[in-house]
Design goal:
The protein is α/β, with parallel strands linked by helices. The protein is built from 13 helices and 20 strands. The strands form four sheets. A ten-stranded mixed sheet has the order 2-1-3-12-11-4-5-10-8-9, sandwiched between helices. Strands 17-16-18-15-19-20 form a six-stranded antiparallel sheet, sandwiched between helices. The model has no long low-confidence stretch (mean pLDDT 93). Bound molecules: nicotinamide-adenine-dinucleotide.
Amino acid sequence: MNNSSKPTVTIARGDGIGPEIMDATLAILDAAGADFKKEFVEIGEASYLSGNSSGISAEAWKAIRDNKLFLKAPITTPQGGGYKSLNVTLRKTLGLFANIRPCISYAPFVRTKHPEMDVVIVRENEEDLYAGIEHQQTDEVVQCLKLITRPGTERIVRYAFEFAKMHGRKKVTCFTKDNIMKHTDGLFHKIFKEIGEEYPEIEKENMIIDIGAARLADTPEMFDVVVMPNLYGDVVSDIAAQISGSVGLAGSSNIGESFAMFEAIHGSAPTIAGKNIANPSGLLKAAEMLLEHIGQGEVAQKIKNAWAVTIEDGIHTEDIFVAGKSRELVGTKEFAEAVIARLGQKPERLPEAKPVEQIKIEIPKYARVQRKKEYKGVDLFVHWSGSNPDELAEKLHALEGEHKLSMITNRGVKVWPNGFEETFCTDHWRCRFERVGQETESRQDIAVMMARAITQDIDIIKTENLFDFDGVRGYSLGQGQ
Ligand code: NAD
């Protein structure tokens, strides 16, 4: 933010329908009395095609970094040519750790199978499989590392609870798959329980993601705020927006410690660009979240109510227009004018908006805890084209010194000792060596094992050390172990 008390918002009008919906949105914000300065930047297609492979120029970066608030219309990512997704770049570069997507149905005025739906998806935005650490390890096997961190999980979970508190919401549900991923998703669930205790007034619930997503698609009215790791959030938030019947009506915010970015969830819809038929509501909803973020919740409330009256009055853009039910088919600009004409009015059937306090999330400075870490052994990952694990075990015994081979798995399933010949095996073997000598630290023995592997022609493609932390095993067992 600049030094003056009035914030400056960086604004990108985007591509395709972007400029039309941005003009409509800004007209409504101005008429409602939104109080911020605007700095316009160009990002997206023109920037990509002028040679910025990430779709953003140095000047645009400067404005975004100076102002810290960003209202962004959708952009077009050119097909092919190795262009990087600007959204992922923005999210990661600016540390936008929380993605907030309210998914609300507006029945009976907008068609939906779920008239009672009012769910907010809070998606962790930076970690998990999106760390993008991938390797091909053998002829047959590629790997993507799933990283769940304590600091990253603490802040997203805290954000979910604070969001619920500020918006008067009653329940926060956590989706994980910790019955399978006991360490990664297990940590997310554990932190959800820990932080949840600080919010006694809010109901807490944990669900395994598969049944949770199924219930959300079937009975969304049983959910309120739902928090989850990145990949699940990516999938579930699209499903939730779609089933609310109103993808074109949904906005989202991307929140970081110092930066925040607001946008519609839809894309640049190039086939309807320039025709004045796009619905500006998704971007308008994002702009309402911006206003709440900067402490102008009353202006947001006024816009929400006027928008709801417009929808109740049957003044609809083409995407939600239903002949016989809607009253008037309007274009982008005319829809904005209709909302402006209704500023100050309150809806009769749709819920009336309440003012929202500015969300100020005090994320306690992360205090790193040094745990007692005890070395227990090492998993050697081996590229081997044979098929009989007994043969591999025979070769591996030659590596033993202060470690003893205790198990071989293939795709996580134990195949030695006492494996089943029915188990399908690839060329990627995880060979667990447990430390046997208690006197020495034993870790230098890993280097000895590696050297022996070279002389024995054993192709080690990766090692992963095994530790207990504070006496608790910090690694998974083999399936069937
Ligand atoms: P899209 O969301 O642009 O369009 C999907 C469908 O929804 C189309 O039929 C479109 O006409 C309709 N639609 C979307 N927004 C609408 C609105 N406001 N009013 C009325 N109808 C609307 O998705 P797409 O076609 O897969 O992608 C088009 C371009 O948008 C691609 O270049 C893609 O990379 C980009 N995109 C950008 C963002 C972003 O900037 N955040 C997000 C998604 C896609």
